[in-house]
Design a protein that fits this description.
heterodimer; A: mainly alpha; two-stranded antiparallel sheet; 16 helices; 2 strands; B: alpha+beta; Alpha-Beta Plaits; four-stranded antiparallel beta sheet; elongated
Chain lengths: ~450, ~110
């Protein structure tokens, strides 16, 4: 079922990096490797895109989550996002970039150890100088751009165990998860020829698999291992400041143009189309969630419409380099509806406490997007991919999803259990009722 | 002397304050409170999770008055706070033993 490789219709350069997860498709740029020359236009755009993606985490995601928790935990969530950003940034330059993008020992079509994870050849960013180029942009920019993806992925997980995890345990978990889960998955999908899922032909333009399914599944596992918040679901735990959540979601939406259009690693037609489909999918999903809620619960809610927008952004992420605007409409609408159902009725009926719906929005939206990427990449459906056999591509996408779900699920479980048995994962019951802001940080969010 | 305590809808506070001034009341204590009565609460829904909010925000007024003022004060509050809908609140009147103005030491009627 592996697609025959090279057919990259689009004009974009395929860098093995993050963006194109189009293994089958993305080869030319990567492979033909005429010595790259610096493209100032691309460089300017990628610097901006990098900053936009950082803005998604700080303050976008941080506020999105902070508004949804109770007022006694507002600082804990902001703190977690901030600390993860700092921690992963450091780990990224020490060894993370190397584990993801060191291609030593990789060979197209050959599955070996380096198909799963990179080596240490670029540890401490060995050899990176001001002249180093990747695809026409300075490698320093590429490293920072990729770093912002490595930052937001673990930060997304925070929403699943909000209001109950020890801060010390969180730091250990995030360092281990980044090392043992994020780095290998990103390497398998984005490192280029010889990467496991790259070679399978999985399409993941901007990180539906690497970022969203990865974080969403880890979130579900974390919610299950940590257990429910005290009092859930009988005690009311309404969001304490939906205004923050709206600001956060809006910053995510704007930042997402850096995420998706930046994943072209160029200022070109692919980036432009990625920008367009990102907007279309977010809008379609926001409306779908809003109307679904209106019909089922009789009121259109603010939390609903912003959740829908995020679900649409998640779902279009893997497809943003290959889908057309009409495909984006369909992907957004599907994500809005399916994520709505998962984050409301299915979550309630299964009883797990994924506090801020990391699983319902990111894992489910990511899976919907990953599968539909295989459908709407087909030119016959208005896509810009090279997919002619939709069924075959959907099967490849499903393999990528399945592998990621299983690998992430198992590895996350092992990491959490190891921490639980050594240092413990949860705060005491007393600290949980008092609120993590005071209990863990000796501060309160509101001194009114 | 009597203490008049009234629970009213928050948006009626300004009307009640004006009505009290008109009948010669010179001081009122106002507290934001929550509670429930026959109006009961309302429901809130966040991502499908429905919460019943039992306690609704109300305003509590406390007015100390001389005995001959009581009827006018109670009427003034009632007419100003009345919307005709459930949840308008209640007025309680009870005996007031002693009043002292801290600054001057004046007592009872002189202190009101």
């Amino acid at each position: 079922m592996v697609p025959t490789k090279p057919h990259r219709p689009l004009g974009f350069r395929a860098l093995p990096g993050l963006a194109l997860l189009l293994p089958g498709l993305a080869l030319p740029g990567w492979v033909q490797a005429a010595p790259p020359t610096l493209n100032t236009g691309d460089t300017a755009w990628m610097i901006v895109a990098t900053v936009l993606v950082l803005m998604m985490t700080l303050p976008g995601l941080a506020l999105f989550y902070a508004g949804m928790v109770r007022s006694k935990n507002v600082l804990s969530v902001l703190m977690q996002c901030f600390a993860i950003t700092a921690l992963v940034s450091v780990l990224w330059v020490v060894y993370g970039y190397s584990l993801v993008f060191d291609t030593t020992g990789m060979e197209k079509g050959v599955v070996n150890f380096n198909s799963f994870v990179g080596g240490f050849g670029k540890a401490f960013l060995a050899g990176v100088g001001t002249d180093s180029l990747v695809y026409g942009i300075p490698e320093s920019v590429f490293i920072t751009f990729q770093m912002t993806f490595a930052v937001i992925t673990p930060a997304l997980i925070v929403g699943a165990f909000a209001e109950r995890m020890k801060f010390s345990a969180l730091l250990v978990f995030m360092a281990l998860w980044f090392t043992l889960v994020y780095a290998p998955i990103a390497h398998m999908v984005w490192s280029g020829d010889g990467g496991l899922m790259w070679d399978w032909g999985v399409l993941d333009f901007a990180g539906g698999t690497v970022v969203h399914i990865n974080a969403g599944i880890a979130g579900l596992v974390a919610a299950l291992v940590l257990g429910k918040r005290k009092g859930y679901p009988t005690t009311a735990m309404p969001p304490h400041n939906l205004g923050y959540t709206v600001i956060g979601a809006s910053l995510l939406w704007v930042g997402w143009f850096g995420f998706n259009a930046g994943s072209a690693v160029a200022a070109n037609g692919t980036a432009g189309m990625a920008m367009l489909v990102t907007q279309v999918a977010a809008a379609a999903a926001a409306l779908t969630w809003m109307f679904a809620e209106w019909v089922i619960h009789r009121k259109a809610s603010v939390l609903g419409i912003v959740s829908g927008a995020v679900a649409g952004l998640v779902a279009i992420t893997p497809a943003s380099g290959t889908a057309g605007p009409m495909g984006a409409l369909a992907i957004g609408a599907a994500a809005g509806l399916i994520c709505f159902v998962f984050s409301t009725s299915i979550k309630r009926s299964l009883g797990y406490d994924d506090s801020l719906d990391v699983f319902g929005v990111h894992a489910i939206g990511g899976i919907v997007g990953a599968i539909l990427t295989g459908v709407f990449a087909a030119p016959v459906l208005g896509g810009f991919g090279t997919v002619t056999d939709i069924g075959a591509q959907v099967w490849i996408q499903a393999k990528g999803v399945g592998f990621t779900v299983i690998y992430t699920g198992v590895a996350t479980l092992v990491i959490l259990k190891a921490i639980q048995w050594t240092m413990g994962l949860r705060v005491s019951e007393e600290a949980e009722s008092e609120g993590l802001d005071i209990a863990l940080h000796n501060e309160r969010g509101y001194n009114l | 002397m009597k203490m008049v305590m009234a629970i009213i809808k928050p948006f009626k506070l300004d009307d009640v304050r004006e009505a009290l001034s008109e009948v010669g009341v010179t001081g009122v204590t106002v507290t934001e409170v929550k509670g429930f009565g026959r109006q009961k609460g309302h429901t809130e829904l966040y991502r499908g999770a429905e919460y019943v909010v039992d306690f609704l925000p109300k305003i509590k007024l406390e007015v100390a008055v001389t005995t001959d003022q009581v009827e006018r004060v109670v009427e003034a509050i009632q007419s100003a706070a009345n919307t005709g809908k459930i949840g308008d609140g209640k007025i309680f009147v009870y005996e007031l033993e002693k009043v002292l103005r801290i600054r001057t030491g004046e007592l009872d009627g002189d202190a009101l």
